[in-house]
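Subgroup meeting minutes
Present: P.N., E.W., G.H.
Scribe: E.W.

1. P.N. recapped why we're keeping a running log of single-chain structure predictions: easier to compare across weeks, and new members can see raw inputs and outputs side by side.
2. G.H. added today's entry (341 aa).
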Amino acid sequence: MNNIEYKLASRTAQSDRSSRSSVMMLIATISVALGLAVMVVTLAVVDGFRRELYADFRGFAADVRVAHITSLTDESAAPLPFSGDFLAEVRAMAEVEWVAPYAEAVVMARAGDNSLGLKLKGLGADYPMEWWQSRLTEGRMPDVGAAERGREVALSRTTAQRLDVGLGDKLEVLSVEDGQRPRRNSFRVVGIYHTGLEEMDSQIAPADVRDVRSALGWSADEVSGYDIMLKESERSTEVANRIDGRIMDGRWAEDMTNYLPATLELRYPIVFDWLKAHTVIARSVVIIMMVVLLFNMAAAVLIMVFDRIGMIGTLKALGMRTSSIRRIFLYRSALLFARGA
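Output recorded in log:
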């Protein structure tokens, strides 16, 4: 940039370092730097928190879950017939990364004198375990691919502490289905996991899907539903609507009229409303910091103008236009902002 306004702005910036306004310019520069730093950190923290929280919710319940229509309000919903055709067609969708059936049982777990309610989530050999493995702090995940059922379970660190159990300890599980006698089963703790989502950690205990079916008295062709993980989670609503349309069209031979494809946002509306509130707060902080930054810049420009009254008079006497003098101070402000940034 070779115009006279920029050259004068650059010269005044250098001479300001030894003038009486140098301290004020330094304060303005620091305020710009701090304001930008606060905005960047605020956005980074909120975005990182949201991404990590969403990743954990995806791990627990996938992007889309196809389950009985009553599952949104009743955790002990009726089983669904396993559909190989449904599984194959959903797996063939371009947006789908993987799809796998699961079985869930609401049970009472007891170890010694300690007891609490749990939700056993039965996973099969075709259920990806990478996310669960990444959250393990001790032991391993249940061996769901073994030829024989091992009656193994992984507990969250919170649940293990409340039940006072560790790796290798026995866990007595009591399950009750409507109209049936209570079933009592014994599981061995083989893993401890931790995600930081206290509400989810304290509820869910992954186990072998065959053991969960046995605890519920279900047959081998009954499931609670299907977890569907997408390549792009942003398309979950689109995929859920497409699957719902095919269900309504009677696409598959099995009676699937009671199936409901539900996104994470539909299943956990309070959590996502809370995340949206955090995003609004973060944006509010950024807006406030921008306003403060603009006030600081305006104050710095006024200081520069008052400090250069003599220079302004000289330039006017030499015939410089007011617009050109204004550009000198605009360039000077830009240099100050760049220095603070």
